[in-house]
């Protein structure tokens, strides 16, 4: 074999092992017995040790020196492998294993603490995880900003400072729009009633298929925190149900389908290569948020959804226009994943600032609950009533995902840019959405974003699809136009 062929053969087996590790993680959040947490931690720790050894194999350095790429895909593969090799080589194997072991155990402890509303029970293992992540960040940063080193895992090329500048531009217009809407005389009604959970799941499955999710290569299960897992031929999603809030199930499903379709629609030739998965979490989130919001919550699509819900649950007590307002209703609340489009990013910015402080050492993990509550009261004007509706609501920190949260808002920014491009390219899109058919838009995303997988760099993906560099303007313009109309009068 040529050096490039030998490198790709080695990488293929590494990618396969990574998929196996991901499947163990999926099982842990869906079907694994609670009492198996300690054993699963050992299993994942050993598997992570094997993966770390493969990612730091000295032969990779030799192959990279000698490998020649014959096409853009080959060049991109070499770029990804070189970056991964250099980063992995900086992290000691014992640290990689310790992180895998501790985060696996912490996931179960987080779930127990969340159920018991007991942050103090979770604080010790969170402290341990932050210590390990700070150690990892120091190893990766090479004297640079530790938080940037962690962020680079999820959004290559981004920095905390550049994101802060973007977020600072978002905040004032979001707060002004939120205050204007909540202060409006006319307020959309909340959905009232009890909605059978099995019927919710039936409708969520119909929505998943409508948005292009291939159930022959996927499945839908329930989890505490909805997520998508896998790539290629095995891409699984989860959702959750609440008898009082069917939107939670339906829109969680559409959101995760956005992630899943990105993975399912990547060029099959890239399977088990570095190009065979989404290029970054920001680009990934752009797909899920666009599916969920710009498509799933627009007036044309909610008009169709109104009829579907009436078929499943009976008279909803409102017409289609009122239902559109209800779907997009601004409301006070505590949970990020249940937040409306206007306030969602304020939830993300809170987490971004707090996790940066934890990694810098400015905030001790044991003080997180107090810091969270103080910041939440500053941003939203009221206090969370419990830890489960405050700092324990998200799974991310328990599994070590520091640097992940800001990609949610970055994804919204990317989605705003992509939505503007889609509307220009498909002027009759609303006619299709009114029939429950988002495929013109999802096909456009498949052809302009998803099929490329990791071929291009994150910002390059958006720029190529839209014709311009991404910025926050299209998202803010979209939000102000949409919610200004809903809350007019």
Automatic annotation (TrEMBL):
Domain of life: Bacteria
Single Gene Ontology MF annotation: metal ion binding
Catalytic activity: Release of a C-terminal amino acid with broad specificity, except for -Pro
Keywords: Carboxypeptidase, Hydrolase, Metal-binding, Metalloprotease, Protease, Zinc
Positions that bind Zn(2+): 255, 259, 285
One GO term (biological process): proteolysis
Coiled-coil portions: none
Matching Gene3D superfamilies: 1.10.1370.30
One Pfam entry name: Peptidase_M32
Free-text cofactor note: Binds 1 zinc ion per subunit.
Enzyme class of the recorded protein, top EC level: hydrolase
Catalytic-site annotation from UniProt: 256
Cofactor(s) annotated in UniProt: Zn(2+)
Keyword Zinc in record: yes
EC annotation from Swiss-Prot or TrEMBL: 3.4.17.19
Family: Belongs to the peptidase M32 family.
Its biological purpose: Broad specificity carboxypetidase that releases amino acids sequentially from the C-terminus, including neutral, aromatic, polar and basic residues.
Name of the protein this chain belongs to: Metal-dependent carboxypeptidase
Species of provenance: Palleronia abyssalis
């Amino acid at each position: 074999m040529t050096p490039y062929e030998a490198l790709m053969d080695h990488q293929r087996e590494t990618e396969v092992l990574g998929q196996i590790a991901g499947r163990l993680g999926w099982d842990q959040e869906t079907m694994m017995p609670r009492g198996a947490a300690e054993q699963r931690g050992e299993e994942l720790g050993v598997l992570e040790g094997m993966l770390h050894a493969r990612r730091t194999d000295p032969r990779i350095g030799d192959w990279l020196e000698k490998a020649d790429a014959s096409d853009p895909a080959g060049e991109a593969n070499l770029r990804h492998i070189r970056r991964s090799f250099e980063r992995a080589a900086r992290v000691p194997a014992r640290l990689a294993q310790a992180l895998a072991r501790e985060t696996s155990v912490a996931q179960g402890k987080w779930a127990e603490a969340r159920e018991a509303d007991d942050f103090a029970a979770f604080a010790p293992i969170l402290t341990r995880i932050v210590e390990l992540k700070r150690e990892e960040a120091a190893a990766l940063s090479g004297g640079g900003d530790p938080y940037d080193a962690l962020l680079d895992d999820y959004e290559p090329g981004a920095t905390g400072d550049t994101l802060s500048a973007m977020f600072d531009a978002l905040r004032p217009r979001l707060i002004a729009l939120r205050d204007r809407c909540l202060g409006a005389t006319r307020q959309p009604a909340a959905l009232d009633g009890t909605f059978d959970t099995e019927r919710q799941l039936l409708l969520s499955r119909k929505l998943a298929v409508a948005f292009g999710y291939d159930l022959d290569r996927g499945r839908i299960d329930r989890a505490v925190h909805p997520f998508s897992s896998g790539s290629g031929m095995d891409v699984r999603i989860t959702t959750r149900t609440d008898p009082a809030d069917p939107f939670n199930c339906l829109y969680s499903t559409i959101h995760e389908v956005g992630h899943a379709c990105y993975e399912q629609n990547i060029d099959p030739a890239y399977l088990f290569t570095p190009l065979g998965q989404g290029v970054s979490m920001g680009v990934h989130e752009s797909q899920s948020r666009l599916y969920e919001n710009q498509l799933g919550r627009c007036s044309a699509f909610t008009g169709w959804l109104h009829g579907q819900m009436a078929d499943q649950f009976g008279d909803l007590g409102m017409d289609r226009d009122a239902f559109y307002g209800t779907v997009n209703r601004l409301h006070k609340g505590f949970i990020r994943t249940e937040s409306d489009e206007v306030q969602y990013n304020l939830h993300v910015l809170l987490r971004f600032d707090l996790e940066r402080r934890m990694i810098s050492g400015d905030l001790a993990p044991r003080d997180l609950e107090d810091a969270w509550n103080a910041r939440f009261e500053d941003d939203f004007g009221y206090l969370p009533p419990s830890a489960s509706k405050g700092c324990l609501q998200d799974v991310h920190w328990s599994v070590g995902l520091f640097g992940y949260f800001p990609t949610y808002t970055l994804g919204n920014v990317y989605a705003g840019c992509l939505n503007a491009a889609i509307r220009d390219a498909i002027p009759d899109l609303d006619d299709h959405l009114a029939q429950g058919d988002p495929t013109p838009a999802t096909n456009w995303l498949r052809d302009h974003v998803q099929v490329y997988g990791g071929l291009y760099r994150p910002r390059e993906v958006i720029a190529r699809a839209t014709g311009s560099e991404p910025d926050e303007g299209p998202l803010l313009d979209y939000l102000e136009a949409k919610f200004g109309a809903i809350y007019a009068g």
